[in-house]
Amino acid sequence: MNPERHSSPFSSMRRVAVWAGMLVSAGLAGSECAACSTILLARGPVLLLGHNLDEQTDFPGFVCVNKRDVFKVGCRWDELRSPTQEFSPALSWISSYGSVTFSSLGRDLPDAGLNEAGLVTEEMSLAEGAYPLMDLRPALFQMQWIQYHLDNCRTVEEVIRSASRVVPHGWPWHFFVSDQNGKCATIEHIQRKLVIHTGPTMPVSVLCNSPYRSELDELKRYEGFGGRRRLSLANPKTPRFVRAAGMLSDFDPESDVAPVDYCFSILKNLSSKLTRRSYVIDLRNRIIYFRTDTVPETRYFRLEALDFEPATPVQILDLDVRGVGDVTERFEPYTFEANRRIAEGWVRHVQEMFPGAGETERLAGGYSSAQVDRYARYPETSLTRSELASGRNRYGLTALYWAALRGESDAAVRLISEGAELNTRNRAGSTALMGAAQAGQLSLLRQLLERGASVSARNQDGEDALSVALLWRHPEVAKALIQAGAPVDAPNVHGLTPLFRAASSGDLEVVQSLLSRGADARAKTREGYTPVMAAAGAGHADIVERLLDGGADVDAVTGDGQTALFFAVASGHLRAVQSLLKRGANVNARDTKGETPLAVAKRNQEGEIVRCLRKRHPE
């Protein structure tokens, strides 16, 4: 096991905080020149998504055809950019849907895409954004986060549910998602908390480079949207969000202007001298139209003409392919050399943005030439079902594990009847039962248990099926495993017991079930991290109360001198702060830097929490 790959959440918080500072200094965490825009034109039969990609310098890119039913290995950004760290299959999935993605860094590392179910995901830089630093959930590099949802979701509702389970990692982006039903949503992390706008809270289907709420508040100052300020489409000082909202509102489906052309006209109005690519996705007809600054002519390809079967070669299309009109037949077989060219172009692009950076800073920021091959070879971590019996199956995956992770109950039962070993472990130590637990396949999990699957088997990280179910937030599966006799107090390699996961996920019923079966509410990791801290940091005041009722220490401290109150304050969870104070938490506690919870709240501009703390500790 690589200790860097499986570091504890508390040490990860310190490391990511340092790394985030490097990104800010390098400029990757949000450029002032960023002017990306996404719009959704939805009126009657018209359902078009448009996007502008703006960057300070140009670089190559391609469209990639991603196959369904492919095993993929996930990682965080710090893991991806590491020149020596081996990728681990501990965080993995199997794609349910094929997709086409726009990529500037390489295959499996997209910045946008459309899957065969009609789901679109887009990204834009967000300088005000901040992903969670301290979290017990699976974390994926933000480009992989996009691919993960294209691989596994068909609707906006599914992405919203998943966003609470799987967090992005890297420099701050926010996301626009839409589906073939016309639903859309924005997904943001503001002050390290998930913020989603959809339905009634998303009256305008536009996203640029500021938090959606602030853009909407600004829009309300303009005529037609509740205000008195004149909305001038010709005035570049009018915010892009406002101009886009105005043009979407003005769309006339009876006009002689074709809807795709109108959508491109909106993108043209929002563009700048830094706009490198513009595209419009026709979600009803599954056609993708695109232009680049190098080749401004409109070209398009048809999703229905692409092959998503895993047995056929992966195809790619150069975004600067010459021509006009239909270029569906211009896709070519993917090669490592083509992927390396894209990765090299992205690294060169970032180096040109920051010409004064030294090699140490480039390595820390992920844009050293020494990291090009790392990015280019990342797709080699994937595996198709047909390769299970080949030398490419470096992970030791079995057909039964594959069926369990995909939720294929009939196939799993057939394999068992044919003599498949229930408790065979793959290279990461995972069993078929853990695969079913990750996928949330309750019926299949019960069948595996009935046939003798081991409920106590543990993978290389010391996680059993119960821990895996809690990690992926499947409470019904977790309860079934507890009833089947799963160990309730066994720590993983970092000292995290199932109670930590349950406290972080917020399922009070699972917490109560664990405690009733003897789980230790006072458990600690090597760094002193406790379940109360996990609940407080996630904002689950009811679970904080239950753990304290179960004997947890309200003022237990980590190696950095932080108590649960610090975690609640740092995460901005007022109710958790109130619960801790009611139970006697020390408001005057100081960490090893000499900071108090009040100082943290003031620095984070958490006004309500500041007032709450001052009542206990007046200045």
The major sheet is characterized as: 9 strands, antiparallel
Overall outline = globular
Per DSSP, what share of the residues sits in E-state strands of 2 or more residues?
A: 15-25%
CATH superfamily of one domain: Penicillin V Acylase, Chain A
Tell me the strand order in the biggest sheet: 13-12-11-8-7-6-3-18-20
**Gyration radius over CA:** 25 Å
Round the mean pLDDT to the nearest integer and report it: 91
- Helix and strand content put the structural class at alpha+beta
CATH class of one domain: Alpha Beta
Q: Report how far apart the termini are.
A: 49 Å
Task: Tell me the CATH topology of one domain.
Answer: Penicillin V Acylase, Chain A
Unreliable residue stretches: 1-27, 29-33
Helix content: 25-40%
Question: Explain this structure to me?
Answer:
The longest helix is centred in the first third of the chain and has 18 residues, at 9-26. Helix content is 35%, strand content 16%. The chain has a domain at 9-35 and 51-207 and 273-380: 4-Layer Sandwich (Penicillin V Acylase, Chain A), CATH 3.60.60.10. It has 619 residues and is an alpha+beta fold. It has 24 helices and 21 strands. It has a nine-stranded antiparallel sheet with strand order 13-12-11-8-7-6-3-18-20, covered by helices on one side. The relative contact order is 0.10. A hairpin with a 5-residue loop joins β11 and β12.
